[in-house]
């Protein structure tokens, strides 16, 4: 068995998250060998079209869905907004060849519970993440965090004694100002957007998420990103997480980045319009001895735009001794 990891030019029809036999090959994809015994020790790795998290953790505000795959040194992957663990599907499958990989949908995101009155702010997510690490029995895992997940991982480490062996920050929210124009507009009008007509919401959502990729998303991939935010519950949850995205949650930790004492890798798409490359330079400069890796031609969704570049950088970073 081999795992086929799509390259930057991979075809849209290949099913990049699937496990395929050696007789099946996409000419535009890179084949990465995976030991069969590492694929399913904790359950079946979901394919791209069947991304299902099988475990749940009860928080005071609802159930958080999570899962783990592979065997080896632990790595935890954090998604951002408005995404879910689905963003890591290909990276998780590839890393599971050599690592025990943990993924989770933050409260109010993906398959995790969504309801009125939830606290889904970076403050709440950081507390939940620290609880999850304890629940999983992970004392010093490697952590890889994208977008809003970067703020969550940094807060958990700096404020809640979550210890990491190393930290990779991928197009991460870390310094204000952050958030797109729509993000800021929702924060200023939190009661208006949940009441938008369904067709208006769906059109705006599709256009908004689509801008996260510089190369463009295949229809099926874009639909998978949109699915958690559809319907009455999903629409309310989408605007809830935006309304609670207060920049104070990074303002109150950013002066502490200089005290980080662990290996840090900053990965950034050179064509990110949500968080421009200057943010990556600012973050790397704020952290002692941090390395920066530029992902050429990638927008904010580097997992979609430059998967082989990202995976290569992460595998090298995770393999290095401190």
TrEMBL record:
Organism: Haloechinothrix alba
Domain (AB hydrolase-1) ranges: 73-307
SUPFAM superfamilies cross-referenced by the UniProt entry: alpha/beta-Hydrolases (SSF53474)
One Pfam family named in its UniProt record: Abhydrolase_1
Top-rank taxon, per record: Bacteria
InterPro entries from the UniProt entry: AB_hydrolase_1, AB_hydrolase_fold, AB_hydrolase_sf, Epox_hydrolase-like
Cellular component per GO, a single term: membrane
PANTHER family, sorted: HYDROLASE, PUTATIVE (AFU_ORTHOLOGUE AFUA_2G14860)-RELATED, MONOACYLGLYCEROL LIPASE
Protein name in UniProt: Pimeloyl-ACP methyl ester carboxylesterase
GO biological process, alphabetically ordered: acylglycerol catabolic process
An example molecular function term from Gene Ontology annotations: monoacylglycerol lipase activity
């Amino acid at each position: 068995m081999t795992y086929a990891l799509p390259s930057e030019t991979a075809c849209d029809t290949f099913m990049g998250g699937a496990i395929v036999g050696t007789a099946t090959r996409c000419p535009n994809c890179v084949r990465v060998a995976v030991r069969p015994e590492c694929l399913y020790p904790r359950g079946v790795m979901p394919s791209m079209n069947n991304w299902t998290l099988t475990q749940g953790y009860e928080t005071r505000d609802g159930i958080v869905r999570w899962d783990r795959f592979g065997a080896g040194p632990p790595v935890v992957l954090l998604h951002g907004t408005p995404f879910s663990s689905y963003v890591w599907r290909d990276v998780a499958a590839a890393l599971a060849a050599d690592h025990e990989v943990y993924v989770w949908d933050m409260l109010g995101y993906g398959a995790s519970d969504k309801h009125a009155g939830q606290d889904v702010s970076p403050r709440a997510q950081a507390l939940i993440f620290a609880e999850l690490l304890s629940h999983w029995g992970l004392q010093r895992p490697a952590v890889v965090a994208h977008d809003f997940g970067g703020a969550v991982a940094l807060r958990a480490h700096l404020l809640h004694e979550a210890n990491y062996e190393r930290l990779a920050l991928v197009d991460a929210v870390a310094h204000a100002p952050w958030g797109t124009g729509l993000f800021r507009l929702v924060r200023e009008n939190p009661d208006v957007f949940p009441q938008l007509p369904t067709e208006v919401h769906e059109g705006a959502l599709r256009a908004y998420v689509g801008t996260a990729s510089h190369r463009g998303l295949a229809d099926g991939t874009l639909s998978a990103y949109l699915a958690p935010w559809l319907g009455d519950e999903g629409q309310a949850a989408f605007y809830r997480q935006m309304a609670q995205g207060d920049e104070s949650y990074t303002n109150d930790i950013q002066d502490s980045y200089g005290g980080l004492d662990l290996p840090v890798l900053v990965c950034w798409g050179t064509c990110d319009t949500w968080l421009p490359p200057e943010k990556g330079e600012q973050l790397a400069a704020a952290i002692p001895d941090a390395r920066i890796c530029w992902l050429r031609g990638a927008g904010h969704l580097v997992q979609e735009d430059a998967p082989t570049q990202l995976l290569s950088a992460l595998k090298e970073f995770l393999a290095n001794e401190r």
